[in-house]
Amino acid sequence: MSSQQQDQSTDTSTPASSSPIERASKVNLLGMTQAELEDFFLNIGEKKFRATQILKWVHQLGVVDFAVMTNISKVLREKLAQVAEITPPKVLEQWDSTDGTRKFLICMSGGNAVETVFIPEGGRGTLCVSSQVGCSLDCSFCATGKQGFNRDLSAAEIIGQVWIAAKSFGQFEEGATRKVTNVVLMGMGEPLLNFDNVVASMNLMMHDNCYGISKRRVTLSTSGVVPALDRLGEYTDVCLAISLHAPNDELRNQLVPINKKYPIAMLLASAQRYIDGLPDQRRKITIEYTLIDHVNDRPEHAHELAELLAEVPVKINLIPFNPFSLSNYKKVSNNALRRFQQILIDAGFTTTIRTTRGDDIDAACGQLAGKVNDRTRRSERYKIDMEAFTNASNDTIPVRLIP
Ligand code: SAH
Ligand code: SF4
Fold first, then answer.
1. Which of 57, 125, 158, 175 could bridge to 63 as Cys pair (CB 3.0-4.6 Å)?
2. Are residues 22 and 116 in the same domain?
C-alpha cells in the first residue's frame, strides 16, 4: 500500500512482551470501525489519522503485529503494544470440499466455536459468516436453532471470520487466486439480534480502507426481527434477504416461531420500507424459501406464495432442505422442487435454486452447528421462552434458564 510509508522514526524491533495481567486489560482493535479507532487514538493522546493506518495494516495487509507497522513510530508502536492488541479468533479446524468450498471451525472466547464457509464460484468468493454462537429463535428445520443460544459474537469475532478467510487464501498478498468478494450473514445466528456488532462489522467489510466490498455484495439474512429491521436502514444499506419459508402465517408459525410475534404482513411491510429507503430503487429483497418434503413444497404453497409476493419487489431463492441428525424433516424431491420453481417463474418471479455446496464437509445451509465444550448442557440451558417473547413489548429476547 502506498499509504503504508515508513515513519521517520521507524525501528522494527519487537516491543517487550507483556505479562498476562497487562494482556487481559488490553483493548482489541480488530473489530473497531474508523470512528471508534479515531476515538481510541484521541483518548491516548494521538492523532486521528492513525486510525486509517491501523485499518489498512489489519484489513488490507493482514498485519496484526504492531512491530511490523513501519509507518508508525517506534515510540507509538510500543505504547500501542502496552494498551492494545489485534487478536483474530483462532482456526480450530479447516475442511476443503472437492468442489472448492472451505469450511472453518473457529474458536471464539469461552470455549465456543462457530463455523464459517467460503464458497468459490468462478471469479466470485462468497463467505457465509456467523453472527452468534447458536441461535435463540429455534426454527424447526435449522441445526443452529437446535443448539440453543449461547452468546452474541463481538464485532472482532465477526470481522475476524473475514480476516481468517482472506488470510487463508493469501488475499493480503499480491496475486492471490481466491478472494472474498461477497459476504452473506447466513451462518449461525440471527444477525438482527446482534445489531450493533453486526452493523460495525459490515461497515468494516465495505470500508474503502478495509475490504472495500460493495454494498451490493454484502447480504444480511433475517428470519424477521421487525423492530430491528425497522432501524437497519438508519445504519446501513446492504442487501436484504428474508427467510420466509411459508406463504401463510399458520405454516410459518410452525417453521419460524418468531412469526408469532412478527407475522408475515408486518415483516414484508418492514422489508419494503427498508428497500424503499435505499438510494438505488432497483434493489430487490431476496426471499429465502427452504423447501421441506411434504411440509411447504406443494403446488398450492407456490401459488399462495406468488399471490403473497405479487406487489413486493423480490427475487426468490429456493433452498432444498439440508437434513441433519436432530431433524425428522426430509429433503424436497427433485420433482417437487422443479414444479415449485416453475410455478413461481410462470407467475413472473426471478426464481433460483440454491445449489448445495460443500456436501462432503457438512458445509451446506442450515448444517452449521459449531461445537461447544458442553454442547448438550449449553443448548438445554439457553432456550428462548417463546411465550414470554410473544408477549414482550420490545425485541428483547427473554432467555429461559432451564434448571
Ligand atoms: N438467522 C438468519 C441467518 C442464518 S440462517 C436467518 O434465519 O435468515 C441462513 C439461511 O439458512 C436461512 O434462510 C435459513 O432458513 C436457512 N436454513 C436453516 N436451516 C436450513 C436447513 N436445514 N436446510 C436448508 N436451509 C436452512
Ligand atoms: Fe436462527 Fe436463522 Fe436458524 Fe432460525 S434459521 S434458528 S433464525 S439461525
1. 57
2. no
